[in-house]
Amino acid sequence: MVKLRALELLEQHGKTKYWLWKQLGMSYQGFSNMINNKSRSITYENIDAMCVIFSITPNELFECDFEK
């Protein structure tokens, strides 16, 4: 299972979910589903934006848990 590490990255950078939501300009429901790994998809635009915001690569944005 591929998981978005956004909550962990926010904590590492001392930022809030609200701050990231404002940066991404998404609907709150879509953002909430994405951030809590309940979304079925994520756009390249949002992947790119989070990589820029956190100064990371897509490899650092996601983690893979092959046991689930």
How would you describe the overall organization of this protein?
By secondary structure, the protein is mainly alpha-helical. The chain has one domain (2-64): Orthogonal Bundle (434 Repressor (Amino-terminal Domain)), CATH 1.10.260.40. It has 5 helices and 2 strands, in the order βαααααβ. It has helices at residues 6-13, 17-24, 28-35, 44-54, 58-61, and strands spanning 2-4, 62-64. The protein has a two-stranded antiparallel sheet. The termini are close together. The model has no long low-confidence stretch (mean pLDDT 95).
Structure at a glance:
This protein is mainly alpha-helical and 68 residues long. It is 57% helix and 9% strand. It has helices spanning 6-13, 17-24, 28-35, 44-54, 58-61, and strands at 2-4, 62-64.
For the record, what is the CATH homologous superfamily label?
Answer: lambda repressor-like DNA-binding domains
Largest sheet: 2 strands, antiparallel
Report low-confidence residues grouped into runs of 5 or more.
none
Gyration radius (Cα, Å) is 11 Å
What's the topology here?
Elements: E1 2-4, H1 6-13, H2 17-24, H3 28-35, H4 44-54, H5 58-61, E2 62-64
Antiparallel strand pairs: 1-2
Labels describing this entry:
68 residues, mainly alpha, 434 Repressor (Amino-terminal Domain), 57% helix, 9% strand
